Amino acid sequence: MTKRERVCAAIEGRKPDHVPAGFSLHFPKGEEHGQAGVESHLRFFRETGLDISKIMNENLATYVGEVPAPADWKTVRKACREGGFVEAQREFAQRVLAGAREEGYFLGTLHGITASAIHPMEGFYGYEASRTRLVEHLREDEGPVLDAMKEIAQRQCQLVRAYQEMGVQGVYYASLGGEPRWFTDEEFARWIAPLDRLILTEIQKAGLHAFLHICKDGLNMERYRDYPADVVNWGVYEAPLSLEEGRRLFPGKAVMGGLANRGGPLDSGTKEELEAEVRKLIAQQRGQGFLLGADCTLPTETAYERIRFVADLAHTL
């Protein structure tokens, strides 16, 4: 099988010749944009030998700075409507694809609605304070905040269509907001889930595989039970939710992951420890509906030869 055929077989419930593998990391500062970013991607694809070639997305929703009150989300809405972050990512992804010479399985990256809603102000307040401000403003006056979030969702849907036109096979959607310390179940269902679902549905309508990545720890995974997706990826050690429990929560969907992105054998173990963990995972999952990966993006400093070791091992089992 080709890499693309192998990944599609695993996602669609058919038996691949080997378990496909897919990992990603954020490239070092100065190597994530422009021609340097294109070359970093191509080197990563070439040196890791992974089945999934994931195109990272560092083109975030337009930054505005301080957002003092709910009414100021009108500024966020206008900035995101007029900003060029979708166009920038379209142009970047096209350049990466043009430089890739093999028929791999290409995965575009999309930031979820919660992450995208804090990006316009995160540089001003910081991550934790931005998350808090989003929740507080929605509770205080949801109207202008939701208007801005809906604008961002429409822009993300435009990026989905751009990915489809340039020929990727799937879109990796990074959802955020499942932690009960931020939203109650009712608030998540009212403010976050409808926009998550809108974008995921757009991915599937475009004929692409929807990869749902559920980010962070201490999650209420039940919030995602009925999300439209073809593949689900989460932190089995962070959520916490094992792969077996995830298969029961997401029946009929492929699962991706199994390895801790930090603090586990892939990050800091010996090769013997890493090999033992990969062999155990593949034996447990029996090859169908399973893609080998990590809880989330790997540390930037991860050596490519360690990732290549995992990919090559998966292809021999």
| Percent of sequence in beta strands | 5-15%
Structural class: alpha/beta
Strand order of the largest sheet: 1-2-3-4-5-6-7
Low-confidence stretches: none
Order of helices and strands: HHEHHEHHHEHEEHEHHEH
Number of helices: 12
Reported for the largest beta sheet, the result is: 7 strands, parallel
Please report the distance between the alpha carbons of the first and last residues: 14 Å
| pLDDT averaged over residues | 95
Percent of residues in helices comes to 40-55%
Strands, count: 7
Radius of gyration: 19 Å
The dominant shape is globular
Descriptive key words:
alpha/beta, 317 residues
Please provide a written account of the structure.
With 317 residues, this protein is α/β, with parallel strands linked by helices. Helices cover 50% and strands 12% of the residues. It contains twelve helices and seven strands. Strands 1-2-3-4-5-6-7 form a seven-stranded parallel sheet. Helix 3 (73-82) packs parallel to helix 7 (142-166) and helix 7 (142-166) runs parallel beside helix 8. The longest helix is centred in the middle third of the chain and has 25 residues, at 142-166. It is globular and about 55 Å long. The protein starts with a helix and ends with a helix. The relative contact order is 0.14.
Would you kindly provide a brief summary of this structure?
It contains twelve helices and seven strands.
